[in-house]
Design a protein that fits this description.
- The chain has nine helices and twelve strands.
- The radius of gyration is 16 Å and the shape is globular.
- The longest helix is centred in the middle third of the chain and has 14 residues.
- The chain has a seven-stranded mixed beta sheet with strand order 3-2-1-4-8-6-11, with helices on both faces.
- The protein is of the alpha/beta class.
């Protein structure tokens, strides 16, 4: 079996209705050969039932609840693609997301990870216009110069659902660290930890153009204080 160019890695926990939209946005990618891996981190909602119609189109893995980092690592271990692109189960990709990034990565062998802008949406999928524009300006300002370890340690603006990583990067630097910061039953900070370790060995590229993903804002997201504690631990 020919290996795909990209592995779309979707991890989820109790986000059944949002998950279906995320899967459909991955399957709708244009001009790229991909596999879609969904790791269900022990959901107790209707996720297993909702996902049944998609089982012929995705690789569905269900595991005991172990946290977001462990779920992403499970997807990486199964990944056959040259690149791994992460999509949180409450977010969406624009149809040309992967094609644009694969072209960018193919042209820049020294780049280990690439990411870009996102459009912010509410629970219903409606665009948050002012929030989107404010975020675009912040991301543009933060990436006027190429990212460095120091710049990302000081202020890292990178949304996971816009990222794509070379699969062999994980063989060199390791996977997500699932012990970065334990807060209650959540593990946070693993994203920043990974980005910093990548920057020790590779470049990170920012694609300053149309948005790559739609980032959903809703009440069940990881609280800001947990994210902050995770970053402090890193």
């Amino acid at each position: 079996m020919t290996a795909p160019t990209v592995t779309a890695a979707i991890t989820t926990y109790n986000r059944g209705p949002y998950l279906i939209e995320a899967i459909e946005s991955a399957l709708a990618q244009i001009a790229v050969d991909l596999e879609v891996i969904v790791v269900d981190d022990g959901s107790t909602d209707e996720t297993p039932r909702l996902i049944e119609p998609y089982l012929n189109h995705i690789d569905y893995v269900r595991q005991e609840n172990a946290g977001r980092a462990a779920a992403r690592n499970a997807a990486i271990r199964r990944a056959r693609g040259t690149y791994v692109a992460f999509l949180d189960s409450d977010d969406l990709w624009f149809p040309d997301k992967l094609a644009r990034q694969v072209a960018q990565m193919d042209a820049s062998p020294s780049v280990g990870l690439a990411h870009g802008h996102s459009e912010m949406i509410d629970e219903r999928g409606e665009t948050l216009v002012q929030a989107t524009e404010g975020q675009r300006l912040r991301f543009q300002a933060a990436h006027r110069r190429a990212p460095t370890y120091a710049s990302y340690a000081r202020s890292c603006l990178c949304l996971t659902s816009t990222t794509i990583v070379r699969r062999d990067v994980f063989d060199r630097i390791g996977f997500f660290d699932d012990s970065v910061a334990l807060v209650g039953h959540s593990v946070t900070g693993e994203d920043l930890d990974l980005y910093l370790r990548i920057l020790l060995e590779y470049k990170i590229a920012f694609l300053d153009g149309p948005p790559l993903a739609r980032y959903r804002v809703h009440e069940s997201q990881t609280p800001l204080d947990e994210l902050t504690l995770g970053e402090l631990a890193v």
